[in-house]
Structures are given as structure tokens and as C-alpha cells.
Amino acid sequence: MNYELWLYLCSVKKRFFIYLSYKGTDYHGWQIQPNGISVQEVLMKALSTVLRTETEITGAGRTDTGVHAQLMVAHFDVGGELPAEFDITNKLNSLLPRDIAIQKIVEVQPDAHARFDAVSRRYEYHVVTEKDVFRTELAARLSDKPDFDAMNKAASILAEYRDFTSFSKLHTDVKTNNCVISRAEWTSRDGEWIFTIEADRFLRNMVRAVVGTLFEVGRHRMSVDEFRAVIEAKNRCKAGVSVPAHGLYLVDIQYPENIFAP
């Protein structure tokens, strides 16, 4: 390879998606914070070390303090060729703490964006109704078993609406509180009850507020019709309290096929 061609290849920016998982217990969420360690900060330091250059990463969204991710996606840019995917993945995993793991790194189109190109996101909220020492940091415990049938009836209503102001954290900088929910249901699996919700986007604190309000239905403190009224009120004060963060998981993010490099 001649020198001019080598210079050209090094000047060409390539973008990559990095797929990872993490246990959020010891982190102040995904996004870099001035007063606490974040997943983004730890990952950036490891990636910069492996690539031997300061490397910025942009995540598909935020997760709050204590929230986990079975799958998070972020993008980063490099000049020239990236080392073989198998090698860089192993190198990152050897540097990262045991509660953050890289799954894969794939090349995408130069203008692909981990946040803005996502077409759907899926979360799960895990609860147990009995004391389980092995799930203390990974699932919320309920002292009594709520009425999951009633909660599922209420959850099915969510897909009928678009404006979820009642479940949004106050004073955020988003332009709209509209979301399209395609799935919302409670299921039982391996001794846990799991609430699965999928949408094109989510508002800050939305899933935890939805679950907290569904618990009001499950405890028969709120009827299904009253749950509907909460949505229509577009008032956070009408909804239930937010449930603890440690039961929440980001589990999947989907993208259109055309953003990936051939």
C-alpha cells in the first residue's frame, strides 16, 4: 500500500455500533455525571485505551441510576480500519469491570445514530413476591401478590393512547410526550412476574411510573377505568409513585437494516 493511500484510509471516518450489557447497581446510570461514576464514562475510558486515542461514544438513550441493561447500543467513530472485531471485543472485556460486558461491534453507515435511528425499544420490569437473596439487586420485591389479571387489563389500554405526560418526569427538555406503545403485558417466568413494554420511544421515568400506577390497580386501589382517567389527565400527580430502579431492564433496541454497512 502506498503512502498516499494509507493517509487517505486513515482520514476516512468509520462509525460502529457497540452492543453491551451491564448491571446498573453500582452506576449513576448510563450518561456521564459530574458527581458519580456512569457506564458511559467507564466504557469511554476502556475504548480510548484500546484504540489509543480519545474516543467519544453516544448511547441509544439514558438509563437511570441502578437500572440494568441486557442490551444497550452506542456508537463511536474511528479513523481508518478498526482492529478485528473479535480481538477488540476481547480486549475491551478484559479491561472492563465484571458488571459491564461487550457483546459485539458492527460497522454501520457513517450517518447512523444509536439514538435517533432506533425504531423500537423494549424494557422489562421484574418483581418477586417472596424473599430471594439472589435477586435482591435484580428484582423488586412485593410484600403481597397483586391482581395481575387486573393489571394486564389496565396495561392493554396503553396502546390506545399516544400522550403519556402522566407518566413522564416533570421539567424535561423533550419536545413531545407522545409515544407509540406496541406491547405492554405481565407474564410469569421462573418464579418472577415480568412486565414487558415496547415502544418507539420512552419518556424519562416513564416505565417506572407506569408500573407504579399498575400496582395501584393490582392492589385494587384504582380501577381499570380510573387508570384510563390517569392517562387522559396528562398530569404526573394523578399517577402512582415510581417503582424502584433495580427491577428495571433495557432488554432490546431495534434498528432498520439499511443503516448497517454491507
Your description of this structure?
With about 260 residues, the protein is of the alpha+beta class. It has two domains: about 5-115, Alpha-Beta Plaits (2-Layer Sandwich); about 120-250, Pseudouridine synthase I, catalytic domain, C-terminal subdomain (Alpha-Beta Plaits), CATH 3.30.70. Helices cover about 25% and strands about 25% of the residues. It has six helices and nine strands, in the order H-E-H-E-E-H-E-E-E-H-E-E-H-H-E. It has helices at about 5-10, 40-50, 85-95, 150-155, 205-220, 225-235; strands spanning about 15-20, 60, 70-80, 100-110, 120-130, 140, 180-190, 190-200, 250-255. Strands 1, 2, 3, 4, 5, 6, 7, 8 and 9 form a nine-stranded mixed β-sheet that branches. Strand 2 (about 60) and strand 3 form a beta hairpin. Helix 2 crosses helix 3 and helix 4 (about 150-155) crosses helix 5 (about 205-220). The longest helix has 13 residues, at about 40-50.
